[in-house]
Amino acid sequence: MKHQPPNSIDNHLTVNRRHFFKSSAAGIGAMALSQLLDNSASANTGLHFTPTAKRVIYLFQSGGPAQHDLFDYKPLLNKMHGQDLPPEVRGEQRLTGMSAHQTAFPLAGSKFKFAQHGNSGAWLSELLPHHREIVDDVCFIRSMHTEAINHDPAITMFQTGSQIAGRPSLGAWLSYGLGSENQNLPSFIVLASAGQGGQPLYARLWGSGFLDSKYQGVRFRAGKDPVLYLSNPDGVCHSRRRAQLDKLNELNRHQYEKELDPEIESRIAQYEMAFRMQTSVPEVTDLSNEPESTFKLYGEEAKKPGTFAANCLLARRLAERDVRFIQLYHQGWDQHSNLPKSIVGQAKETDQASAALVKDLKQRGLLEDTLVIWGGEFGRTAYSQGVLTADNYGRDHHPRCFTTWMAGGGVKPGITYGDTDEFGYNIVANGVHVHDFNATILSLMGIDHERLTYKYQGRRFRLTDVHGNVVDDILA
Amino acid sequence: MVLNEAPEYYIMRYLFALLLLTTASPLLVAAGEIDYNRDIRPILSDRCYFCHGPDKENREADLRFDLPDGATEAFTSGELVRRIFNDDPDEVMPPPSTNLSLTTKEKKLLQAWIAGGAQYAAHWAFQPLPATVVVPTTKNQAWMRQPLDAFVLAKLEAEQLQPTRAADPLRWLRRVTFDLTGLPPSTTTIEAFQRAFASDADAAYEATVDRLLASPAYGEQMAVAWLDAARYADSYGYQSDKLNTQWPYRDWVVKAFNDNLPYDDFLTWQLAGDLLENPTREQRLATAFNRIHRLTNEGGSVFEEWRIENVADRVHTFGTAILGLTMECSRCHDHKYDPITMRDYYSLSAFFNSIDENGLYDSSEKVPSPTMLLPTPEQEAAQEETVKQLVAAEAAFHDATTSAAPRRTNWLQKNPHAELKIPDQRFALDFDQPFDEEQKKLTYPSTDNLSMADSLERVDVVDSNVPRLLPAEGQRRAIVLDGDRGVTIKDVESFDRWTPFSLAITFREPQREPRRSILATHTRGTDAGFNGWDLSLVNGHVESRLYRVWPGNAIGIRTAAPIPVDRWQQLTSTYDGSSTAAGLKLYLDGQLLAIEVLRDKVVKSASAKISHGGQLVIGQRFRSRGLAGGLIDDVRLYERELVLTEIAHLATGAPLAATPAYYASAIDEECRTATKQLRDARQAYVMAEEVMQEVPVMEELDEPRPAHVLARGQYDAPTSDKTLVTRQIFAKLGPPFPADASRDRLGLAQWVTAPDHPLTARVAVNRLWNNFFGAGLVRTPENFGSQGELPTHTALLDWLARDFVDAGWDVKRFCKNVVLSATYRQDSATSSALFARDLDNRLLARGPAYRLGAEQIRDLALAASGLLSHERGGPPVSPYQPGKDLWKESNGMSPPYQRSVGQALHRRSLYSVWKRTAPLPNMMAFDTTSREVCTVRRSRTNTPLQALVLMNDIQFVEAARAVAEKLLTDDHENDQKRLAAAFVVLAGRQPDATEQRVLLELLTEERTYYKTHPDEAQKLIALGDTQPSKDISAIELAALTTVCQAILNLDATIWNR
User: Fold this and answer.
1) Is the pLDDT confidence value at B444 over 80?
2) Which of B595, B826, B1003, B1036: disulfide with B164, CB 3.0–4.6 Å?
3) Distance in Å, alpha carbon of B654 to nearest chain A alpha carbon
4) Distance from CA of B112 to the nearest CA of A (A)
5) Burial letters for A158-182: b for 16+ Cβ neighbours within 10 Å, e otherwise?
6) What is the rounded average pLDDT for all residues in chain A?
7) pLDDT of residue A6
8) Stretch B220-238: mean pLDDT, rounded?
9) Phi and psi at residue B332, in whole multiples of 5°?
10) How far apart are CA B747 and CA B751, in angstroms?
11) Which residues neighbour B345 within 8 Å (Cβ) at sequence distance 6 or greater?
């Protein structure tokens, strides 16, 4: 039995509008799942399922990691290296304008050695040595697929369930549905590796779409001001700010007595939350008190603010503080050419810290209710984009199959799900569409993706539109 | 005509019942009290239409509830009632799997309605706007000031409620000033108003409104909501998100409001300004409305996929912004709730799909066609000057050629045995020998991206009748192209509109290719759009094209017939520098080929210098299909339009003849000088164009592009005669298409602005109402359909709409009537009881209160501080933004953020740059939208980030300091007076005693602090680009700055109450 009958709901979730003003005053974006359901019969219940994950850390690998060189071992490609992709494999499928005009589609065998690891026997290439240590905690999904063939629509699809802008992001849906667990930090935090180049990131990826803008992700940055506008201006110290706020509150309370508008009370609470963030954010982003063993685990890079490793470590610290949704981005996987060279550095930047995060969460007992996700917006082609030589190739975008992994939070550990054909071009079993993937994430968080809806333009919108099936097979 | 306005308490009880999630004894409703639109349709629509509604494809059991006769049997047989009151999960309707279950109250309502005969009524918003709407009579006549007040009061009387007392005059003044101009009233305005009010209150109110409506700030304020709807922004919005050139449209919107352009014209110009008779520059500019949607330039994008996406965005924006309809649904299937079929959707899209666009953009420099140029008067004058020179140069050239005959005769006499040559050769290249290292500096085999490639295979040329390039020794050879590699020839000046040239290629195409194969190219740009010149083969037809943006800004020709395949032949392509398709010619083996013109309109330089390319390449182009398998024997380029004898000579070896044309072009100094001068004059003309602002607009193709119903909305869905649609409006919604109207966007505009159109005026006045009350009478301005909310005051909405239309769609008049009404004048402060009863102010028993918008908050700070620049319009400016460069931070392809300096730092927020994928964070914190898609409602949230912005953003710190500085410079007796003045300038009223006391305490504390921390005082007051006078005490200034900032953060300041 994977889904228990609904628990009784937390009290703060059953609210009427008036109450809502008060409760939202206490935290950022507290919104009731029950409120979302108040058109349905189950309005008085809490979460749809018993959640197995309380929080998510999503390590988004922007650009489209090459599955043939990382996870999806295809010896046939090495055997047929340089030969054309048999036309029947591709069939009528479209290609991007970047390789569609090529006269040949030479298959490119991975330059990297593959081996099986762990009790689960998961295949990994030599590019990911640290992953060997977590394969038994991880569920690899080799059969991911999507429709988009360009980055912008593809990443927007993953993060908002639609290729077209205007829909709320996954994290915004969760903030909207579940509210915040932490009174001092936002419930949805975004961390992007600094100075990475590669495919752009867009505000819409962590935006709130047609939901209230308070549900959008708050971006944390490396450096002096982890959150924009967090620091007091020069010449204003912490204690003076406190004193100013006291006066401000006094004046706003006075105004409330005259106006009686509950929004004023809410505003006072928001100023207090802002003040608390001025302490809590620097505290959580300060990695200096982490012991040396931490940096041994995550790698020396974790000492450099803004690196993927530092962000993974920060993600763990945020998870410890019950931040609900922590979205990381690491760009640079878009290897159209010179893949064998550039993927080495790219894998090195992410391998150790990704594995460390899983290990660290596990040793702290957090992995069981924290869902970690690793993956990009699409995969890459089995054939080479541009000229193939004995030791060099590139790969174009490939939406028909690619690999992502999940760990913790109620996902079956140590399995590989889904199969691709021997070219790694098409899925042959257990395909997982983006909508299925997102439905599964919501399900792990205790939400039925068909019932987390928001009525806009007269229509009940969902993260998964009118699609999506929870991938029950990968649930522990 | 009296509208059927039901007692309001029903709605209120109903709403509160829902609000409180009451499950206890639902109301027993007698059938006679049921109002179909109010009570029944919302249930049927929301819970039943999904499977039993307008969508034919997905309709279950052939049962539909949206039409009166669609389910009669289900009603009369008792089946429906049986199914809704059913505990069996297999029987109950709606099925549990839909998550659309009915509440007990809803079931009973349906039951009662069926028992009463299941009377249907048409959806209110789809009914023609009534010709007249009767103003209700009320008991309290004294309160009313405008006809609209009667509607509000009638409802209050029915609810046994009293209106709230009138707001304090200064509260009204602040409210109306923000609502009409987006700015706070100045201290002098406040004082003048108080004086005028003392002598004649009513006159003072009216004079204030007239003054505000006449202020240029009015248009700036009113434009904001429309720009949200029109999804106006300063960047393209996808991937690299480069900046666009669309700001003149924003200025047009401001001007249209200030000029009080009637709303029907406002719409007509935007929808169809280009189709009006002799359209003015402004009318054409207005059509940018349909072009300012997002565009992508991402590599590898499929042109047609994105062209279809652009058309879809136009349809959706038209639906939401103008009609309050949700078109999106009908893209993939018939609408689930409203009478809009999928066929309707594509028939409507047919109005918007016929412009000469390719679907993508490439770079900021190349504005996606079709476009218009918007020269400044100076640029126009400069261009006229170049026209004069061009006319003179053309005349001189004409004179030189017509007078050449005697000079030729003379020359022939003097040079009877002259060896004739073909001068002006830029290069001639054969491939008899392999590329050597020295040669590779100039020409080399190249890959896709122009880097050096492995040498190309060469084969012997054995059966060619084309003369060899040079009678060189050794074997004659040709290169073999593979489609992916080519030959780059460096440092050849870009071909542009004014440069005559001739390119001759001896080649062989062994196999016919249906797709475009590149023979030669001199282009820049990416696969999202090249610019320059290319020569290609498309199924055997040769094309020669010169363009800035293909196809809309281009000249191009194509041979009428395919050229032969698999033989050696020489193709010569010439251009005369005339910027016309007639100036492009193609010759095969020395014979002029018959052609058809593909495009014949080009503006600005056709060789805009942007990244990628820029070299002359043979046989290939970046991410294009080269001449796979093609053989090239030799290539020659001449910087002149060769004449026939020369071309024939190259192709066949026929001797050159000193024809008049040859003499004029190749020999005669006078003609050659005139040619050179003509070329220079043409270049000057193009350069005069190059600096002009260019804006994308609508411009109809001569022949409408066919439009099809696309299955699942997909661009590559199969099409046939059956999917083909013609331009049509909805079959079952709205008035018929006007009989005398043309089937184009102009006809569509006529349809939309019909005086009894059910939606246009209602949607418009609802949006305007929102400007003043913080919410529309229909709380779902984005949806007037079956799933939208009912108006809080249906008759009022109709009356306002009817009055609006009858008065000539006069927006200013509408605004004036609203702000002078008793409804608007009410105080917003009210009792806790009323808040509890009507938190959202749906009854309008009190005045409006809402947090100011993002633009208003920043503009308030700038205006109060005196920093606000009064410059209006023009290119967007870039205010303070924290961080290093938030644009490039996560987008290496983006242009950098370059902060403005000087006055431009302090422009009204309307003019701040709007970057769709990285909007200004301090504006976003206050709920601006990204403007990626049409939005007609902003959220108004209350978040800690807002507190951080107002407390810490340098923009607000600098403004507070400027306020403080002014207070310290002005003549104020003491702290109390100074604080009062600060309060007035920011909050628009005098502080009360408590406020005075608290502020004074704060000031005293701050002063004490900064006295002991003078360095901190210096740091605080030094923030911002503007610097305070050295004459002012830093301690005093710092202390007062923090106090002003506190006032700036007050509810009293950032709320409009």
Assistant:
1) yes
2) B826
3) 38
4) 21
5) bbbbbbbbbbbbbbbbbbbbbbbeb
6) 89
7) 34
8) 97
9) -110, -20
10) 6
11) B315, B327, B330, B331
Query: Which tokens hold the place of B512?
Result: 């016919």
Q: What residues have CB less than 8 Å from B767, skipping those under 6 apart?
A: B225, B229, B776, B781, B936
pLDDT of res. B455:
83
Neighbours of B373 (CB within 10 A): 17
Residue A224 at interface with chain B, using a CB cutoff of 8 Å:
no
pLDDT digits (tens, 9 = 90+) for B790-807: 999 999 999 999 999 999
Q: Which of residues 138-157 of A touch B (CB under 8 A)?
A: 149-152
Are the beta carbons of B948 and A38 separated by less than 8 Å? Answer: no
**How far is C-alpha B849 from the chain's CA centre?**
31
Look up residue B340 and give its two tokens: 């809009």
Residue B955 has pLDDT above 60, yes or no: yes
CB B819, CB B209: distance < 8 Å? yes
Strand extents, DSSP E, B589-723: 591-592, 595-601, 613-618, 631-638, 693-696, 707-708
CATH class assigned to B425-689: mainly beta
Residue of A nearest to B294 (CA): A165
pLDDT tens digit string along A18-29? Answer: 333 333 333 333
B-chain residue closest to A226, CA distance: B883
Closest by CA to B863, choosing from B962, B969, B979, is B962
Of A157-171, B66-80, B237-251, B445-459, the range with the lowest mean pLDDT is B66-80
ipTM for the whole complex: 0.89
Query: Under CATH, which architecture does the A11-228+298-474 domain have?
Result: 3-Layer(aba) Sandwich (3.40)
pLDDT in tens, B544-561: 999 999 999 999 999 999
Pseudo-torsion of CA A414, A417, A422, A426, nearest 10°? Answer: -150
* Chain B residues near residue A259 by CB distance under 8 angstroms: 828-829, 849, 1051, 1057
3-class secondary-structure state, position A86: coil
The pLDDT value recorded for residue B32 is 52
Look at A386 and B851 and tell me if their CB atoms are within 8 Å.
no
Q: Which ranges in chain B are annotated with CATH 2.60.120.200? A: 425-689
Note which residues in 361-390 of chain B have CB less than 8 A from chain A. none
Predicted local confidence at residue A37, as pLDDT = 36
In contact, B702 and B598? CB cutoff 8 Å = no
- Give the CA-trace dihedral at B234, B237, B242, B246, to 10 degrees: -30
Q: What phi and psi, each to the nearest 5 degrees, are found at residue B630?
A: -70, 150
Q: How far is A220 from chain B (nearest CA, A)?
A: 11
Q: Write out pLDDT tens, residues B636-670.
A: 999 999 999 999 999 999 999 999 999 999 999 99
CA distances from A353 to A60, A290, B861 (A): 13, 15, 45
User: Which pair of structure tokens corresponds to residue B510?
Assistant: 């062994």
For residue B65, give how far its alpha carbon lies from the nearest alpha carbon of chain A (Å).
17
Structure tokens at B877: 């400016």
Whether residue B1015 is predicted with pLDDT greater than 60 in this model: the reply is yes
pLDDT of residue B37: 84
pLDDT digits (tens, 9 = 90+) for A212-226: 888 999 999 988 889
Question: Comparing A38 with B781, which gets the higher pLDDT?
Answer: B781
User: Which tokens hold the place of A159?
Assistant: 């993060």
- Alpha-carbon distance of B961 to B959, in angstroms, equals 5
